[in-house]
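Sanity check

After download, print the first record. It should look like this:
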Amino acid sequence: MEDIGHNNGSTRAATARAGSAPPPPPQCSTADLVSAFSAADELAACRDASGMLRLAIELARDRLGLERVGLFMRDKGCERIVMRGTWGTGARGETTDERALFHEVAPRDYNALLGTRLSGGLGMYSPRSPLFAAEPGRTTVIGEGWIMATPLVAARDIVGVMYNDAAFTHSPVDDGKQAAAAVLCTMLALLYQSRRHSVAWQPLPRRSGQSALVERVLRALNDDLPVTGERLAGEFGVSSGHLARCFKREMGVSLVDYRNRMRLDKFFEVIQRRGNTTNLLDAALEAGFGSYAQFHRVYRRFLGSTPRDAISGNPSPSVEARRSVGPAEMPIPSALGGAEHG
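Expected structure tokens:
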């Protein structure tokens, strides 16, 4: 079993951590329920797990009317809670192969997500997050909006997570569709249990000689987000250039961009917790930015819109592939794309 590095706030795990449980799930309409069971019946005819998971993505879109869908399944061969990519939805609505992606889920996030289902909820819901699409070797920003993470639960254990959003139409959450998705996920979890032995995951990346250093950097950022690379280099007894090169080589993104991405994650968490009446400067400072000017510059660079959109509720104006956030190793709060590459 391969050991993977610290993955603080990964794409999918962030939804469970920062999201909140929506109100008690509504009853499925007869049509939604029939669609869910009809889709499950087609899935049961699939012999191999990969084909079944790909079909599940397409049926969730075509039969249930979900806009963009992605499926991550737990790799039971890892000591940590690692979710491996399967199939997803790209920037043009096409089915994408995401089997090279993975993300780690912290135990507390896993328990929170599992708890929503065991208590009768649908899953974890994040009302406002950057939305990304996976492309070969990177992720691109395609908008901003809500994310729903619906766990696949079997025998009181999460075997996978279905993520969906409405990046194209920015339509509101449809409770009926989400309830139908929860039914489909329950059936899919049971079907997957008997087929998971046929899944051959790609090997996780091995640690390089500098992984211990990068691991210490990630832990330090988790404890003190505003900390600079220069200060960390001094504390760890290495040059700032050596630290920067090691971090970029292992994480696929610069330390500065990684820290700014984490700051934006924290900003959205603050906005969600306080509501849209919060002061943007206060939220930016709490998220670890040194000034509003710095926050505004970083926000526009990564999301292609103004911070005021986070308060007004207006969708980001055509952020389609405005700027790549960086290689897919970067942990970002989105639904479909942005997990680590294997």
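If your output differs, re-run the checksum step. Summary of this record's structure: The chain has a mean pLDDT of 76.
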